[in-house]
Specification:
The protein is α+β, with helices and mostly antiparallel strands. It has two domains: about 15-150; about 160-260, no CATH class. Helices cover about 35% and strands about 20% of the residues. It has seven helices and eleven strands. The chain has a six-stranded mixed sheet with strand order 6-7-8-11-10-9. Strand 9 and strand 10 form a beta hairpin. The longest helix is centred in the last third of the chain and has 20 residues, at about 190-210. It is globular, with a radius of gyration of 20 Å. This is DUF4261 domain-containing protein.
Length: about 270
């Protein structure tokens, strides 16, 4: 009898899937721009791109907005579109995520300037208005250092906040090889309180991307935005929200931030 072999699934390599809609999009030109700007491994998804309107697009874009940057012109582009192009980045191995994310943002900029009307990232479920995409692309292209580049890429591709009725969470950190973020404190009675919670998520997300010390975080550690700010406890969890074969699945998992008991806390702990 042959010995029983153990099986481990292959690693899941994240990739960017960008959706572009427009009027009269030339799919072959979209392919050419993706290859010229992004590189030879950036491709047009022939199976899903089509020179025809998709009636689900208005609803899909609506679901992809968080802090809306869409204008009337953006909605008009979605509603009047008659063609859809999906551009794929190569599957991203560790150490290639930042460069490929930078390239995909450059591809997005190029296609919007060439005639695409609107764009959304399927891998994180995030859409911006045209002007917001172009502004973030410019910030990335003119960044003075990697920290500035990562900040532009974070705001371009990480969707937050998403609320499931129990926690606020992000989607898209898998595109940088990092865990996504959950915030268990959902005291978001008004927009100001919600903005405060998003600021915490952003501070921690950028900490994960830009600080070497983030590699040393362990379950139960604490985090503060600033020395005198509220302290949050960190707990590492698996991504059980997303199916293993979904493009939004985060193999790295997530960090849940929970409010720490203020009693006995010293600033900076």
């Amino acid at each position: 009898m042959l010995p029983r072999m153990s099986y481990e699934p292959p690693p899941i390599y994240p990739r960017h899937v960008m959706c572009f809609v427009g009027t009269g999009l030339d799919l072959e030109r979209c392919r050419k721009i993706a290859t010229e700007v992004g590189g030879p491994e950036f491709t047009l998804d022939d199976d899903n791109s089509e020179a025809a309107p998709n009636p689900n697009m208005p609803q899909a874009f609506q679901a992809s907005l968080t802090m809306a940057s869409f204008t009337d012109d953006d909605w008009d582009a979605v509603e009047r579109h008659d063609s859809v192009a999906y551009i794929l980045s190569p599957p991203m191995r560790p150490s290639t995520e930042v460069d490929n994310s930078r390239r995909m943002l450059a591809v997005t900029d190029a296609l919007l300037r060439d005639g695409a009307g609107a764009a959304k990232n399927e891998s994180s479920g995030l859409a911006h208005g045209r002007d917001k995409w172009l502004g973030l692309a410019e910030l990335a292209a003119t960044a003075d250092d990697e920290a500035e580049l990562l900040e532009a890429l974070y705001y371009a591709f990480v969707k937050r906040p998403i609320f499931d009725g129990e926690v606020l969470y992000s989607c898209g950190m898998q595109l940088f090889g990092e865990a996504d973020i959950e915030l268990s404190d959902t005291d978001i009675a008004d927009q100001e309180r919600l903005r405060e919670r998003v600021d915490v998520m952003d501070a921690f997300g950028l900490y994960l991307l830009t600080e070497e010390r983030a590699r040393e975080l362990t379950d139960g550690a604490g985090f503060r935005e600033e020395p005198e700010a509220r302290r949050w406890l960190l707990h590492r969890r698996a991504d059980t929200r997303t199916d293993f074969d979904d493009i939004a699945f985060n193999l790295t998992g997530l960090w849940r931030l929970s409010p720490a008991d203020a009693a006995g806390d010293a600033p900076g702990q």
